């Protein structure tokens, strides 16, 4: 058995009765078999600004590490191991599928040199550990507390507990999303699911703010998933969500885009329920905005045609679709200047031209958006980037 496989076996064996707060010690024990010492696990914060250390049981946590401008941050943003520092350490990304969870930092007992096999073994260990981190987060609060730089408001807690991971990818398509203000979001949300050759995506924006808006959004997400899992098509899914929103919140409504991408053919079908239009990006530029709206907001369908219209677009290889809520383009500076469509397109197309991964593209978008509004968003801002393939 190779050193990496033995380390993974040791990791799995040690985790059968481990608490979330035991993960750093378990990681250190497994990595020691590869010649690694002083192992630390860093988790990314909700705003993707810092990497926050997970303290060893009974110990004090180390210092947070900024993502921008550090070796640890380079490993996180690039998805590749990074070596350096004094004493020399290796920073290995902890990634569950395409979802970036943080980094594993290790100092080696002997100089690394050009031992590519050891780097590969550490990466395999970090990959196994990523899946463990993703599942252990539901067994206690330690991992959640570690990731929070600020207290999370109840409305945001409700929404985050509804969401899938920020990033998902297959060889044929990728999804990456952002949600801000991450500690105080209310009515915005997103969802996605892959079923066979169909990738479902959705963005929601409920009227209002605070807990009332987050409860309304939670109902819309749950109704959407219920319809999808019952096998309803796009039109009937939209009608089902509309019915439930109106029944439970007769004075409320939710704007939304419900979309489906056939990842085999590139055919994209969607219903825009009173929502801003998607942006179609190709070869580093905005090709056009897609037709919107095609239906009334969810909850208001009784006022118009009971059969929402479906719009269709045939994507080309390499295309990207950007879905967003109005809080993105309407974010204003102190003197009233909006972020706007042009700035949004420029930010995303520049990142894509630099061949950044979708997740890093969206992280940079949210940093640019917050800088524009001096870190004080006046409304929820959500965006979802869908790339094919």
From TrEMBL:
Keywords: Hydrolase. GO terms for molecular function: protein serine/threonine phosphatase activity. It is an enzyme of class 3 (hydrolase). It comes from the Bacteria. Its EC number is 3.1.3.16. Residues 170-388 form the PPM-type phosphatase domain. PANTHER family: STAGE II SPORULATION PROTEIN E, STAGE II SPORULATION PROTEIN E-RELATED. This is PP2C family protein-serine/threonine phosphatase.
């Amino acid at each position: 058995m190779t050193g990496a496989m033995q380390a993974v076996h040791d990791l799995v064996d040690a985790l059968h009765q481990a608490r979330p707060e035991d993960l750093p010690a378990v990681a250190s024990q497994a990595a020691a078999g590869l010649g690694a010492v002083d192992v630390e696990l860093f988790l990314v914060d909700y705003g993707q600004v810092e990497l926050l250390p997970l303290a060893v049981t009974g110990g004090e946590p180390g210092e947070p590490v900024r993502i921008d401008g550090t070796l640890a941050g380079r490993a996180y943003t690039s998805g590749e191991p990074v070596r350096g520092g004094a004493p020399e350490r290796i920073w290995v990304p902890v990634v569950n599928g395409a979802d970036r969870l943080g980094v594993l930092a290790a100092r080696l007992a002997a100089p690394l040199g050009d031992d590519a096999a050891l780097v590969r073994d550490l990466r395999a260990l970090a990959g196994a550990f990523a899946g463990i981190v993703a599942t252990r987060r539901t067994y206690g609060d330690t991992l959640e507390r570690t990731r929070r730089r600020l207290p999370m408001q109840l409305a945001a807690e409700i929404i985050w507990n509804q969401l899938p991971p920020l990033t998902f990818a297959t060889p044929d398509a990728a999804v990456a999303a952002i949600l801000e203000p991450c500690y105080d979001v209310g009515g915005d949300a997103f969802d996605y699911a892959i079923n066979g050759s169909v990738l479902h995506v959705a963005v929601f924006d409920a009227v209002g703010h605070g807990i009332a808006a987050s409860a309304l959004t939670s109902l819309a997400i749950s109704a959407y998933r219920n319809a999808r899992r019952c096998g309803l098509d796009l039109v009937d899914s939209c009608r089902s969500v509309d019915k439930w929103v109106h029944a439970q919140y007769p004075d409320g409504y939710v704007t939304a885009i419900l979309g489906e991408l056939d990842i085999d053919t590139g055919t994209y079908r969607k219903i825009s329920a009173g929502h801003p239009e998607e942006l179609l990006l190709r070869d580093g530029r905005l090709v056009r905005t897609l037709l919107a709206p095609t239906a009334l907001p969810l909850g208001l369908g009784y006022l118009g045609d009971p059969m929402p219209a479906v719009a269709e677009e045939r994507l080309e290889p390499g295309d990207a679709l950007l879905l967003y809520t109005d809080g993105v383009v309407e974010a204003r500076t102190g003197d009233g200047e909006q972020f706007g469509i042009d700035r949004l397109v420029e930010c995303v197309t520049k990142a894509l031209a630099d061949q950044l991964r979708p997740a890093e593209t969206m992280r940079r978008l949210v940093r640019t958006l917050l800088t524009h509004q001096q870190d004080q968003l006046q409304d929820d801002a959500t965006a979802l980037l869908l790339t094919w393939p």
